[in-house]
Amino acid sequence: GETVSPQPGPENEMSQDIANIYTMLKKISDDMGGIEDIRRTTNSVESKLSALIAQIDDDEKHVEFLEETENERQRNPPASKCELDQLKDKVEDMENRNRRNNLCVIGVSEGKEGGNMMRYMGDLISTVFDTS
């Protein structure tokens, strides 16, 4: 039982070189698989980042709209309920004051004046007071 060890020589060195190259290629292949995983993860992160950027853009537009609306409201504030009530009271008072200037002639049917109220009233007063 004598063991024969391989002789150092060109064939043995070439065989060792091929084994080393194979080992390096296997490591490179494994590393490439890891790089592909990193590439997929990077693509996923980029996709999510793009979605976040789009959402932020939408949010910025919404905030800008709200700020413009608030600025407009401050420049031209809406009337309060109290102010509206005061305006309604003023309108009602003006309508009532306007009615006070109207003459009410008792005994004359409504619509009797035809189309010319001034002429009818002039004729009526002339007749009543006999100013002919």
From TrEMBL:
This protein's source sits in the domain of life called Eukaryota
Segments forming a coiled coil: 49-104
Query: Which keywords fit this entry according to its UniProt record?
Result: Coiled coil
Q: What name is this protein filed under? A: Uncharacterized protein
- Native source species: Cirrhinus mrigala
